[in-house]
Amino acid sequence: MKRMLGKAEQTISKLQAKVADQKQQIRELQAQAKHEDNLAAEREELKAEIVALKSETRELTRANREHVEKVVALQTENAKLKADAKVRKPSGRAAGADLRELLQPSLSG
Fold this sequence. Notes:
This protein has helices at 2-88, 92-108. The protein is mainly α. It has one domain (2-108).
């Protein structure tokens, strides 16, 4: 009888150890599953952020193109105005001659 009781206690101890091991495995698997869920949630957040950044990049690129077009137009206009100013602005000698021509009739008359 003692021998059967000893075997039963031994079997119970083995089963308890097995149950403890299985509980530990369950805890580890639950922790792993939770970690994977967190990673999946983070991945979804990053996907949404990437979509938002792509959209922002497109908007900034469009705005930059518009800005470049405006700058080019202003540079072109500035170049034209400078060219017009050079054509209209006589040199110092020519300006003096023009002024003398304008004053000649009033001096002689």
